[in-house]
């Protein structure tokens, strides 16, 4: 899922959003997304740049400054966690927030670990490193580190797999609290509910 410039969300008057190009708060909090949607974080300030991650309402990111691209304000952010990443997000979905772990549940929204994985149809399962950024109610962005290098992106909404990297088919089978995921007809991943929901 993506957030385009045509789906502006009305914002409360006087709210502290990313409305400046320099300065501003140390931390942003994502807000204003439609329920179940995510805010794409891109490699550069514009929708033509590759998606490097996604955030949900309530996620927090460090403010690295903003700039205009046409009529859209883009803010460079750093997302904390076990494997932090940096990118650009549309400023209209950011408001002043507090640092993760400073009296809020932000720190619990980030995690990293190992999950069972296989990259070929007949390959036995091995383990792959992952990192996750969680929103609410099973909304999670998961990045799995591939053994040969690079990462596979898995996008979950309400505990359901809704997408992966562009051009790849996705399939999910749930047994108890285990989510068996197939990507592109060959890759297999097993994610416990705890990866998506925390705990």
Automatic annotation (TrEMBL):
Q: InterPro entries, from UniProt?
A: SH3-like_bac-type
The superkingdom of the source organism is Bacteria
Region spans: Disordered: 1-21
Where along the chain is composition biased (Polar residues)?
1-12
Pfam families this protein is in? Answer: SH3_3
Domain SH3b, by residue range, is 37-94
Name of the molecule in the record: SH3 domain-containing protein
Q: Which classification does the entry list for the species?
A: Bacteria, Pseudomonadati, Pseudomonadota, Alphaproteobacteria, Rhodobacterales
